[in-house]
């Protein structure tokens, strides 16, 4: 199985070994022919004028653009991803894609296929790690989180046409030809406000397996089933 995991360690309850134990359990279950994938986003490597949690004074914007360290797949920490993916990205043998804001990390059989050539623009489209999980007919496991944390629904946003779909400009510091540069790129304007509604409608189709991992309510499903359903839902409801 190719398995994309979104998780909340605290929702599981006390675990002997914490995040490390959870990761090792997932890898043991997947085995040598499996692939484990997690989002390792670093949203603070972004245009400071768009920051809201917290915002920063306009007088700081230029200094941030000029001095923020460039994205480094080994060193740049995740932001608001949780302890499990933050620990996972540092595990020997795990590869991390090179997008400064929307990277994914992978371990196992298809790790190179999933993480390589992650383009700056359209960061979660069909050519991104999410799209590669889709082509590999991978599955998604939500451990103690709801669909508002389900990045595969962003893939559905790219695949669907709906009123109000717009393009925005992002920016981040990256290394290019051995030099740090502040680079702009384009992407769609993501809208996750209806993701939980989409997820609840999808769960009603009966295509999910539900259970508990520790104390965490958890859901397992085929990513392709979700994305194809979400495209139709978005085009009908947005």
Your description of this structure?
The longest helix has 15 residues, at 223-237. It contains 9 helices and 9 strands. The model has no long low-confidence stretch (mean pLDDT 97). It has one domain (2-43, 75-164, 190-237). The two termini are 33 Å apart. The chain is α+β, with helices and mostly antiparallel strands and 238 residues long. It has a 7-stranded mixed sheet. Strands 6-7 form a two-stranded antiparallel ribbon. Strand 3 and strand 4 (104-108) form a beta hairpin. The chain is globular, with a radius of gyration of 18 Å.
Q: Between the first and last Cα atoms, what is the distance in angstroms?
A: 33 Å
Q: Give, in order, the helices and strands.
A: EHHEHHEEHHEHEEHEEH
Q: Into which percent range does the helicity of residues fall?
A: 25-40%
Shape: globular
Rg over CA atoms, rounded to whole Å, is: 18 Å
Number of strands: 9
The assembly state of the depicted protein chains is single chain
- What portion of the residues fall into strands of 2 or more residues? 15-25%
Distinct helical segment count: 9
Largest sheet: 7 strands, mixed
Short summary of the structure?
It is built from 9 helices and 9 strands.
Short descriptors:
238 residues, 7-stranded mixed beta sheet, two-stranded antiparallel ribbon, 9 helices, 32% helix, 23% strand
